[in-house]
Specification:
Layout: E1 7-11, H1 18-38, E2 45-48, E3 52-54, E4 62-65, E5 70-73, E6 86-90, H2 94-103, E7 106-109, H3 114-130, E8 139-144, E9 147-148, H4 152-163, H5 168-179, H6 202-213, H7 220-229, E10 237-238, H8 240-254, E11 260-261, H9 268-283, H10 298-303, H11 322-328, E12 330-331, E13 337-340, H12 343-355, H13 358-361
Parallel strand pairs: 1-6, 4-13, 6-7, 7-8, 8-11, 9-10
Antiparallel strand pairs: 2-3, 4-5, 12-13
């Protein structure tokens, strides 16, 4: 039986202040938690041919009055086996990191080297600890695009052939949109000053700066070619054993939990991974031979916890389970819930973000993950 795979991804971007973006996104998640966790009580699904599929007395309207978001509605469908979907987050701005530390279960992260991402992983685990969470609850997934051959020479030849089809102009369009800068107005072969860009995606700007700080002053042509082919993730090229060595380095040095596998050729890239790389990873026990929880939910398999499809009690979502809402919100005679996001509560959210100086806490907290 296949595992139930239900997830939702989110990120924080925009031109407003990071405090505003964080507060707005945080409030939005609370609204969603109230629907996923609080609208339907446990036991609302009865599936009885005589009395019906649901117990209407256990289905409640949620009225949420916030600064940025409001609703007055029932959750439209019965709860999934996980209630709240697995939460993936992307973005490494100040707001994005604080948001991920509070809400995310898994994070898409940028970076070309294990040593390059290790400080971010450590910082995020410390931030999760500051939020009262178990730091091991955060799972990290950088992008990787392996080019695999039976021999090193075959892999190198394959990469050289694939590079012929990368269009730097298409890559420039992508990079221009991320940087909010029209790179077509710059000479293709003159170095581009990264600091002159107004990036809408913080991670992209940081990735460009990291490449430039390594002594390579990128030109628009180079940027376009890089992004059209691989972007700014790792692209190890070699035999299955060589790629497995690199993956093992990522796990040991970068403290990551998996990868966002990107392709150059579809389905060719994935066929090479399945045919050549997977058996080596399984032999080294770097990859499972079967689901940790066969037939289980995505969350059970992500964390390897049979019988625990819900978010843990220390997660923000747990505050919006119906039994908790009866203690903290207004509940009428029919069991319907009204949540008023008070100004002082909003102020507390913002102050909490301001006080979360993650980089200063890294040296103070010993993580045992």
């Amino acid at each position: 039986m296949a595992a139930v795979t239900q997830s939702v991804s989110f990120g924080i971007t925009g031109s407003t202040s990071y405090l505003t973006r964080y507060e707005e996104a945080h409030e939005y998640m609370d609204l969603m938690y109230s629907l996923w966790e609080g609208s339907w009580e446990d036991g609302a699904q009865i599936w009885d041919p005589e009395t019906g599929a649901y117990d209407p007395n256990k289905i409640h309207k949620i009225t949420f009055n916030g600064k940025y978001h409001s609703t007055s509605a029932y959750q439209q469908t019965h709860p999934s086996p996980q209630r709240t979907p697995v939460l993936f987050q992307a973005g490494s701005s100040k707001a994005g990191k604080a948001f991920g530390a509070k809400h995310a279960e898994a994070l898409f992260i940028g970076g070309r080297t294990p040593a390059g991402v290790a400080p971010l992983v450590k910082e995020m685990r410390v931030a999760a600890t500051a939020e009262g969470r178990d730091p091991s609850e955060l799972k990290f997934f950088p992008m990787i695009t392996p080019i695999i051959g039976k021999t090193l020479e075959e892999a190198q030849a394959k990469r050289k052939e694939l590079e012929k089809y990368a269009d730097c102009r298409g890559g420039l369009v992508k990079v221009s949109s991320f940087l909010n800068t029209d790179l077509s107005k710059y000479p293709l072969d003159e170095p581009f000053e990264i600091d002159g860009a107004d990036a809408s995606i913080h991670t992209m700007l940081e990735a460009l700066k990291a490449v430039s700080s390594g002594g390579q002053r990128l030109t628009p042509r180079q940027l376009g070619a890089e992004f059209a082919f691989c972007g700014f993730g790792d692209m190890p090229t070699g035999t299955p054993e060589m790629i497995a060595d690199r993956i093992e380095e990522w796990a040991n040095v970068g403290d990551i939990d998996g990868f966002n596998l990107a392709y150059v050729s579809n389905p060719g890239s994935y066929e090479d991974i399945v045919e050549y790389l997977v058996p080596v990873l399984q032999k080294r026990r770097l990859m499972w031979a079967d689901y940790a929880v066969p037939g289980g939910t995505f969350r059970e398999n992500l964390h390897g916890r049979p019988g625990k499809p819900y978010l843990p009690d220390e997660h923000q979502a747990a505050k919006f389970r119906y039994n908790k809402l009866k203690e903290t919100a207004e509940v009428d005679e029919f069991g319907n819930v009204t949540i008023n996001r008070a100004p002082e509560e909003r102020e507390q959210i913002v102050n909490g973000l301001e006080n979360l100086k993650v980089s200063e806490k890294v040296a103070e907290v010993e993580l045992k993950v």
